[in-house]
Amino acid sequence: MPVFNGLIANQTVQLCNARELHAFVGSKRQYGDWIKDRITDYGFVQDEDYIIVTQRTNGRPRKEYHITLDMGKELAMVERNEKGRQVRKYFIECERKALQQPKQLALPEPEKKYTFEFTEYELQQMAWLWFAFKRGVGISQHIHKIFKMLRSDMAGQIYGQAYDYLSVLRATNQTLNRITQKFEADPMTNWRVLKHLCQFDPKAVKIDV
């Protein structure tokens, strides 16, 4: 009895043709009635346990039920005969072999890159925004110590705020250094902020608990 791969809910699964299963187990019922009653009696769900495929035979359309091996095992066992038990063992072996086959690892999609244009003023504003977060870490830590001594419920929120500030600093420092590398720190202009940006050490800054 052929077992083949098919798609159910966009997932590749092993399937078999219910018509061939019906013939193999030797059911004396008419195939159309057999499969419809089994679906109703045992609560099988279309596009979950089986799919319906229309095929043409001698120019006439014929409806085929392609069923999962789990559904096939259940249909085989309810026949309560030796053929049904053979089918169940066969499907279990098919599943075992499929699990042993090495699966091809999906290659990660290349990271998307974008190109933007910024004015010098806009770059300065981003650098100063980063510096504001840096100052926020120090201020939040100082306030956190005071609220912690007072046993205030706000202490935890302030600690969380300091942690968020530090996360932003670490995540954006490398990017900002890259996009401002053509500029030099100048104490007489807004580029004086570059001194703080370039000297920042992500590992050196920690939040006291």
Largest sheet: 4 strands, antiparallel
Strand content: 5-15%
Number of strands: 4
Give the termini separation.
66 Å
Tally of structural domains: 2
Q: Segments where pLDDT lies below 50 for 5+ residues?
A: none
Globally, the shape reads elongated
Helix share of residues?
40-55%
> Could you report the average pLDDT, rounded to the nearest whole number?
90
Number of helices, counting only DSSP H or I runs of 4 residues or more: 7
Name the strands of the widest sheet in spatial order: 1-2-4-3
Question: What letter string, H or E per element, gives the SSE order?
Answer: EEHHEEHHHHH
Pairing-aware structural class of the strands and helices?
Answer: alpha+beta
Kindly provide the radius of gyration, computed on alpha-carbon positions and rounded to a whole number of angstroms.
Answer: 33 Å
Question: How would you sum up this structure, described in words?
Answer:
This protein is an alpha+beta fold and 209 residues long. It folds into 2 domains: 4-100, no CATH class; 120-199. It is 53% helix and 14% strand. It contains 7 helices and 4 strands, in the order E-E-H-H-E-E-H-H-H-H-H. Strands 1-2-4-3 form a 4-stranded antiparallel β-sheet. A hairpin with a 2-residue loop joins strand 3 (50-57) and strand 4 (60-68). Helix 3 (69-77) runs antiparallel to helix 4 and helix 5 packs antiparallel against helix 6. The radius of gyration is 33 Å and the shape is elongated. The two termini are 66 Å apart. The mean pLDDT is 90.
